[in-house]
Amino acid sequence: MESGTTQSMPKKKRKWLSLDKREAAQGYMFVAPWIIGFLCFTGGPLLFSLYASFTNYDITSRMDWVGLRNYQIMFNRDPLFWISLKNTLYYVAIMVPLTTIGSLLVAVLLNVKVPGMRIFRTIYYLPAVLSGIGVYMLWMMLLEPQSGLVNTVLGFVGIDGPNWLTDPNWTKDSLILMRLWAVGGGMLLYLAALQGVSEQLYEAAELDGAGHIRKFWHITVPMVTPVIFFDLVTSLIGGFQVFQEGYIMSADPTNPGSPMNSLLFFNLHMFNKAFKVFDMGYAMAMAWFLFLIAIAVTIFNMVASKYWVHYEGGDNR
Amino acid sequence: MSQTTSSGPSYFEGRRNRERIRKTLIFILLIVGSASFLMPLWWMLQTSLKSLEEIVQYPPTWWPEKFVWSNYTETWAAGNFTRYTWNTTIIAFFVVIGQVLSNSFIAYGFAKIKFPGRGPLFLIILGTMTIPGFVTMIPTYLLFSKIGWVGSYLPLIVPAFFGGAFQIFLFRQYFMTIPNDLVEAAKIDGANHVYVWARLMVPLSKPVMATIAIMAFNGAWNDFLGPLIYVASEDMYTLQIGLQAFKVSSGVNQWHYLMAGSVLVLLPVLVLFFFFQRYFIEGMNISAGTKG
């Protein structure tokens, strides 16, 4: 547009510099929305919550520095904190391995050449695209002790099914069962990885006389370890965030987390502290505590991954 | 049906038979599995069409004795579902627009323009993917409350216009596959980057846009926590909150109504899935690429 002015620039070098600068300016303009979003919705809130976790902030006017008091209350004077932490850890510790193994096994089955495979894959994947209240309502009905589908089917094989969502010993397992219905999401990841495994590896193993189980352990599993790793990290972070299931699928709908606080997950307790009693400082201390756990687990995962994740082509000791 | 290769020696004959048995077993296993994966959906559908008397009947029936279509109209009338659907649609619409536009725009900057700090910034973006939402949830709420947006849909819509890590990553991956020569050629013709983005990249990236749009729609449609925190009055409820409120207020478990409601809430996603399966799967597959 202003080609006249650009051409009349005296020195070539300066012209290039200004071109670079103009290019950079445009670059910043393009990424500006993200930078603003980051400052407002991620970075800023992160710092604010860290600061506020050391205050008695209650949304009105108070925001006095109280040092570690929130954290002390958390560890020493809030039994619900420990209950909610235990509930969350239980959920994560059972759900993550089960869904990881489940997705991998389903993917292995769906990688065999049999007729109708496209339809099978669609069916197994379908539940994974559904989420939200419709699914929670559906499972609350399926898990009804008397008329529910789950106990009806268990009855066929002579098992007297538990009172899934009303017996505090079974509520978290109920949610895990529901979660397993959606293994199709992880399955897709594994399927993509399985299809990248070279057929020659299997043929070579067969020549050495390896059976299906040996081939699975010595070829399939090592080849998909990068996906297992990815799946582990994301489901752990997702698992720590469990909230809605506990809020909605409680035995007494007016008392989220019931029965007997067995579904009172960490985030649900935090939600109550923040939005029911407006103890924002305390809630943010809780948030940071769980964040630290999540970071520690993720870092542990990354360090440990060096010893078991196999990257093709990369020779990791 | 296994592939009929040239008939080999009898050693291969036996092996092929064993292979056939194995495949048959797997086939049966897959059918049983499919039935159990589909059964919950069938159960929801048939419960939504039964009378309450038939639902509590023991043993349960696997097919409604009488189809009670009025469950749907009664559910629709009992809650303010027309309103909830409209509200949810509005939010989802803007979230889709916001996410598709902003992420494509931002990703173009990261993919095709050189500027100091680009690499580190992109690393920060990837890093934010590992920050759990709950740490930023309360401060973000406080921010919106300070500027007086609580009680409106703005907190649910506006952030969609400022990019998301995963979506930026997805778009960037795609833009990287488009040759730089194309951008250079357009620039030599006098186009600036905004023009190149709007006229070249946007039309070329329709498949990614479809993937992002579907993910955004699903996210907005199924969002529970957002509306729970920000929506104040009953006439602003979304379907998620509305259905939950309906359950709480109905007290006893009115499964025929609740399942009719659930079918209605899940239907748009199901329909989208059947028409745009490819994009659901693509979203998943590209996310697998994140592992590097």
UniProtKB/TrEMBL annotation, chain B:
Q: What InterPro entries does UniProt report for this protein, alphabetically? A: MetI-like, MetI-like_sf
Name a single GO biological process: transmembrane transport
Q: What is its main location?
A: membrane
The subcellular localization recorded is:
Cell membrane
A single cellular component GO annotation: plasma membrane
The alphabetical list of record keywords is: Cell membrane, Membrane, Transmembrane, Transmembrane helix, Transport
Q: What protein is this chain from?
A: Carbohydrate ABC transporter permease
The UniProt transmembrane annotation reads 25-45, 90-110, 122-144, 150-171, 255-276
| Membrane topology recorded in Swiss-Prot or TrEMBL | Multi-pass membrane protein
Instruction: Identify the residues that the record assigns to the ABC transmembrane type-1 domain, covering every copy.
Output: 85-276
The UniProt entry's sequence similarity note says:
Belongs to the binding-protein-dependent transport system permease family.
